[in-house]
Amino acid sequence: MQSRPAIDGPVRRTVVDVFDPAGPRVRDDMSVEVALSVMDAARTGRLVVCDQDDQGTGLVTRAELVAVRDGSAYSDRVCLRDILGVYAEVTSPATTVVGAGQAMRRLRSDTLPVVDEQNTASAALALSR
Question: Which sequence ranges are marked TM in the entry (predicted)?
Answer without folding.
Answer: none
